[in-house]
């Protein structure tokens, strides 16, 4: 497979084929999303890592003005309980919604984001495919 075909496939995954995160969040209500999870995959953080890889690129693609801050925390000694959360920050700078990602599958996390955050679906005619 050529490099161009790989790149096209990757861009289509972000813009067209990953359907769940094809939403638009109201930037007057949400000023940022903060995602925190452990660098390593143990202790229930695997779903958060998969969510970061599978769904956040599409969410960012359709919400370019919304900052998405990802904090991955190293926990080499495995003695500290690292938070595994997604926080929606309101326009006043306070947390308006929170999704616990610990011990959840990436699609469960995305479903909970869709339930807790006000959004509208990207119209089918505005879905970008290269």
Keywords:
four-stranded mixed sheet, Glutaredoxin, alpha+beta, 4 helices, two-stranded antiparallel sheet, 130 residues, single chain, 6 strands
Task: Write structural notes for this entry.
It is a single chain. This protein is an alpha+beta fold and 130 residues long. The protein has a single domain (3-126), classed as Glutaredoxin, CATH 3.40.30. It is built from four helices and six strands, in the order αββααβββαβ. The chain has helices spanning 3-17, 46-54, 56-62, 106-116, and strands at 23-25, 30-38, 68-73, 85-90, 95-100, 119-121. A four-stranded mixed sheet has the order 3-2-4-5, covered by helices on one side. Strands 1-6 form a two-stranded antiparallel sheet. Helix 1 (3-17) packs across helix 3 (56-62) and helix 2 crosses helix 4. The longest helix has 15 residues, at 3-17. 21% of the residues are buried. The model has no long low-confidence stretch (mean pLDDT 93). One of its GO terms (molecular function) is structural constituent of ribosome. Residues 40-120 form the Ribosomal protein/NADH dehydrogenase domain. Keywords: Mitochondrion, Ribonucleoprotein, Ribosomal protein. It is found in: Mitochondrion. This is KLLA0B07183p.
